[in-house]
């Protein structure tokens, strides 16, 4: 088990958010739900205080901190996707109720930033042929949700019809 775990701060939605996240990725589960043992700024006795969960093998903690703080892009979660079907599924689920941005970035309904990135993009951007890598980068910069076929066409120097 990892020694370090990101802690996500919520205003009463920690359990809801954790359940949503673990429903999206394999090797994910709720590990523990800790209730408030006294009334506190985080909630009344018996309400959820902390949810420890594992997301794609990475340990996380969701905390109902008692007030909302806004997340920024300074911290985001990148999801490495094997294919377009996985990109599409995660993009649709995580952006539902949130907002989409350029280059595969989105904010989910809880305001957390995600990068939904196909594995092949990293391979393209590290190609020893700088022209191919540059074409892939240029294509990515024009996209909202990343499209593997469009990236591949640009990478290969095939113009869009």
TrEMBL record:
<dbReference type="InterPro" id="IPR009725">
    <property type="entry name" value="3_dmu_93_MTrfase"/>
</dbReference>
<protein>
    <recommendedName>
        <fullName>PhnB-like domain-containing protein</fullName>
    </recommendedName>
</protein>
<dbReference type="Pfam" id="PF06983">
    <property type="entry name" value="3-dmu-9_3-mt"/>
</dbReference>
<dbReference type="InterPro" id="IPR028973">
    <property type="entry name" value="PhnB-like"/>
</dbReference>
<feature type="domain" description="PhnB-like">
    <location>
        <begin position="3"/>
        <end position="117"/>
    </location>
</feature>
<dbReference type="InterPro" id="IPR029068">
    <property type="entry name" value="Glyas_Bleomycin-R_OHBP_Dase"/>
</dbReference>
């Amino acid at each position: 088990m990892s020694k370090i775990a990101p802690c996500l701060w919520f205003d009463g939605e920690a359990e809801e958010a954790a359940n949503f996240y673990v429903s999206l990725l394999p090797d994910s589960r709720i590990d523990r739900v800790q209730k408030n043992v006294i009334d506190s700024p985080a909630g009344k006795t018996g309400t959820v205080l902390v949810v420890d969960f594992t997301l794609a093998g990475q340990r996380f903690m969701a905390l109902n901190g008692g007030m909302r703080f806004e997340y920024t892009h300074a911290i985001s979660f990148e999801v490495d996707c094997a294919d377009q079907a996985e990109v599409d599924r995660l993009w649709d689920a995580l952006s539902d109720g949130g907002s989409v941005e350029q280059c595969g970035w989105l904010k989910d309904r809880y305001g957390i930033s995600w990068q939904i990135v196909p594995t092949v993009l990293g391979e393209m951007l590290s190609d020893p042929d700088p022209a191919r890598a540059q074409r892939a980068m240029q294509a990515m910069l024009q996209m909202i949700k990343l499209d593997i076929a469009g990236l591949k066409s640009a990478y290969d120097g095939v113009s869009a019809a």
